[in-house]
Amino acid sequence: MTVGVLALQGAFALHQRILESLGVATTQVRAPRELAGIDAVVIPGGESSTMSMLLERGELWEPLAERLADGMPAFGTCAGAILLGREILDGRDDQRCLAAIDVAVRRNGYGRQVDSFEEPLAVAGLDRAVNGVFIRAPVIEAVGSGVEVLSSLDVGSGSAQPVLCRERTILVSTFHPELSGDARLHEMFLESI
Ligand code: GLN
Hints:
The protein is α/β, with parallel strands linked by helices. It has a single domain, classed as Class I glutamine amidotransferase (GATase) domain (Rossmann fold, 3-Layer(aba) Sandwich). Helix content is 22%, strand content 32%. It contains five helices and twelve strands. The protein starts with a strand and ends with a helix. The site of glutamine has 11 residues, from helix 4.
């Protein structure tokens, strides 16, 4: 199995390193022909509007959307979660999403004051917390009935926001799991496929 890491922009290198530490072959994806040899894809954090534009400019949008529609597994982190969702709130007018998972995601949803923070997160199926590193993170505002919420962030007054969600073999996190020196979420993704 080869996992492609979308490498147009953003935080792709550490994803590759973590996947390789788990014994998986990886390849960077920048061009349509590079999609042909991959069995799953990681869409990293970065800037979702820039990635959307680069995907279109590089003629990667349609072939990537087709592979996802055919059931290719994907793990999207932060900007990657925005791209994989079905609806973007507060997006740039020209940015698109791939609609691979039934979530509505608000860009930069934690506002400016708290645009970066870390929080330990309990994750379904894991015995120890994961350190959630949130960097100008989006907020998942709505999830469809087929979506499992695997972790939520307590945001006070009894409410919690989903931060790790899965639908079939599409996994998204609004935080950066590759930054916490912890391979367990990548392992969880690989186990699901
Ligand atoms: N704010 C970025 C966006 O809108 C996401 C930030 C990130 O990936 N760390 O795409």
